[in-house]
Specification:
With 430 residues, this protein is an alpha/beta fold. The protein has helices at residues 43-54, 87-94, 96-119, 137-154, 164-168, 190-203, 250-253, 271-275, 318-329, 376-388, 393-399, 409-429, and strands at residues 30-39, 59-62, 78-79, 127-133, 159-162, 179-187, 207-209, 214-218, 223-227, 230-239, 257-266, 283-286, 293-296, 302-309, 338-348, 355-359, 363-367. The chain has twelve helices and 17 strands. Helix 1 packs parallel to helix 6 (190-203), helix 1 (43-54) runs parallel beside helix 10 and helix 3 packs across helix 10. The two termini are 32 Å apart. The structure holds flavin-adenine dinucleotide.
Length: 430
């Protein structure tokens, strides 16, 4: 099953290994009053709900399907410092000082993830270690330059060079001429993490309603949020719908494009096979623009992601392409069964930096992590809570990042992204 966006949450290995049970999450019915209504039960929405409830707000969280239905419950599970774009993009747009602040906040996002997991005892298989792997000679130079620049301009010394035998101690393949290893990055079971945040939010007093899609937002002070069977009147609204948001708020949806990404999970590997793949249990992503990424689950499945499409339908030959890549990387996996396939949608901004902001006085949003939101969405929730609580400095540092609306609206947006990505795909082949 590789549909990426239908309202039914796809069968995935994540769905089949849920370890967190929520309290009942009834469909919203009738009228409710809230200080804050949050739309979207992914990491952004659940983290915002938790942090706001801890500050004493009365919070209603509405999720169209089930918690983790969107990208948060389908992702590669890699939690990494940085953004979906090189921090140089921020440097250029906002200057060195704010770029440093944003870089440090991206590191904080990873630490926050670990803290939340510990504080709320979330069983989500958190493990540390991440490889950013060169595929081509030009990547080797790019990674070397990146490492130097991060140390020089951002004081970031956590990128360690690996090649040859030292690299094979982390990943047993000849596919990569070199890699950067980062102890500050890691991986987790994204659906259990998201559910764990939702459970913590419920325990902090949040009213969570699943299967309650918001069909209309009436702006005003207070705002009215309307579902099929209910209504929330709220002083403030947080939109945390990311790529799954459709056109509830057109100003927001014009600033992102939706792209589907595809994942597989193999059958559990034997300990010997796992030692011939990722012996140190790192996560890895390659340095291509349209990148592939993978890691092992706690029960030693290879969880592998990559490939893109723009209409939500799986690209032709998808299965053979992914399977071929895995077998070429690791011959030890030649006969291993691929047991699960699923897809999910990422929201990409024009410059691939996340898009945080406000619409009018009382509507807040965070979206467009551009494939790099597992850690950052957790911090976004915390920054949203800070901002609603009256300290907007850190939220506004992100919100200062300029974002363009994709030209041509929904109809032209997709062909433009296809064109741009085709260019980069071709470049990946050089
Ligand atoms: C296949 C895949 C792999 C990825 N791998 C990684 C990775 O390894 N590392 C990484 O950092 N990032 C990764 N990402 C990106 C990351 O998952 C996202 O950036 C992050 O999960 C975004 O969280 P979110 O809460 O903002 O959005 P989502 O998790 O998408 O949540 C949005 C929610 O809003 C709900 N919703 C939408 N409209 C409405 C409505 N009208 N009413 C009520 N609810 C609504 C949806 O049902 C959905 O549950 C990946 C994404 C995908 C798809």
């Amino acid at each position: 099953m590789t549909d990426s966006s239908s309202s039914a949450t796809p069968a995935s290995w994540y769905r089949d290994s849920i370890a967190v049970q929520l309290e009942p999450t009834p469909v919203l019915q009738g009228d409710t009053r809230a200080d804050v209504c949050i739309v979207g039960g992914g990491v952004t929405g659940c983290s915002a709900a938790l942090h706001l409830a801890e500050r004493g707000y009365k919070v209603v969280l509405l999720e169209a399907a089930s918690v983790g239905h969107g990208a948060s419950g389908r992702s590669g599970g890699q939690i990494l410092p940085g953004l979906g774009t090189d921090i140089a993009t921020v440097d250029k747009a906002l200057g060195r000082e704010r770029a440093r602040d944003i870089w440090e906040m991206s590191r904080e996002a990873v630490r926050l993830t670990a803290e939340l997991i510990e504080r709320h005892a979330i069983p989500c298989e958190l493990a540390w270690g991440y490889l950013h792997a060169a595929v081509k000679p030009r990547h080797v130079k790019e990674l070397g330059d990146f490492r130097e620049r991060m140390a020089r301009d951002f004081g970031y010394e956590s990128l360690e060079w690996r090649e040859g035998d030292a690299l094979r101690e982390h990943v047993v393949t000849d596919a990569y001429p070199a890699a950067l290893w980062e102890g500050e990055g890691g991986h987790l079971h994204p659906l259990n993490y998201t559910l764990g945040l939702a459970r913590a939010a419920q325990r902090a007093g949040v009213s969570l309603h699943e299967h309650s899609p918001v069909v209309e937002l009436k702006r005003g002070e207070p705002a009215t949020i309307i579902t099929a069977q209910g209504r929330v009147v709220a002083d403030r609204v947080i939109l945390a719908t990311n790529a799954y948001g459709k056109d509830l708020v057109p100003e927001m949806s014009g600033r992102i494009m939706r792209a589907a990404n595809y994942m597989i999970a193999t059958a559990p590997l034997t300990a010997e096979q796992a030692a011939q793949v990722l012996p140190r249990n790192d996560a890895l992503s390659d340095a291509n623009f349209v990148l592939d990424y993978y890691r092992l689950s706690a029960d030693r499945r290879l969880i592998y992601g990559g490939e893109v499409s723009y209409d939500g339908r799986a690209p032709r030959g998808l299965e053979a392409r992914i399977d071929g890549k895995i077998r070429r990387l690791f011959s030890v996996l030649n006969d291993v069964e691929i047991q699960y396939r699923w897809g999910g949608d990422v929201a990409i901004t024009f410059n691939r930096a996340p898009d945080f902001g406000r619409l009018g006085a009382n509507i807040y949003y965070a979206q467009g992590y551009s494939g790099h939101g597992m850690a950052m969405a957790g911090l976004a929730g915390k920054l949203l809570a800070e901002s609603l609580g009256g300290d907007s400095e850190r939220f506004d540092t992100f919100a200062a990042m300029p974002h363009r609306t994709f030209p041509g609206g929904r109809l032209l947006r997709t062909p433009l992204l296809v064109l741009a990505t085709t260019f980069y795909k071709l470049r990946d082949r050089l």
